[in-house]
Design brief:
With 121 residues, the protein is an alpha+beta fold. It has one domain (2-106): Double Stranded RNA Binding Domain. Helix content is 37%, strand content 26%. Strand 1 (2-7), helix 1 and strand 2 form a beta-alpha-beta unit. It is elongated and about 65 Å long.
Length: 121
């Protein structure tokens, strides 16, 4: 699983933030490592030099193996909270997505209850 951290011109993430983000995401999403090919993190300051409560935005996109990518956004007062909020949202979306896939696969399996030949001799 690759991790890619990007930022726009209005916010500076820095190398230490990128190392920390990489470590956090690898740990948080380790159970999905076979299903995710890449996670892209996009940090931005939406108000640049204006002051507002939730001006930092983190968008995370997970590229899934053989599936459409999923993306989430989170706004917060600083980079840390924006990152953690987006990470939590992405985890919930992935749990939901893969849970639905497991349920669908489980229901499509053959069962003796559905076999019309069972019981008729």
């Amino acid at each position: 699983m690759q991790i890619q951290v990007n930022s726009n011109h209005s916010i500076t993430t820095g190398e230490s933030f990128e190392r920390w983000a990489n470590s956090e995401l690898n740990e948080s999403f380790s159970r999905f490592k076979d299903d995710i090919t890449r996670i892209e993190v996009h940090m931005s300051d939406e108000n640049a030099d204006k002051v507002s409560a939730d001006h930092t935005r983190c968008m995370m996109e997970a590229r899934l193996a053989n599936r459409e990518p999923v993306a989430v956004n989170h706004h917060a007062p600083n980079q840390d909270e924006a990152f953690r909020g987006a990470s939590d949202k992405l985890k919930r979306v992935l749990e939901h997505t893969f849970g639905k896939l497991r349920d669908r696969e489980h229901r499509s399996r053959e069962s003796i209850r559905r076999d019309p030949d069972i019981g008729s001799v």
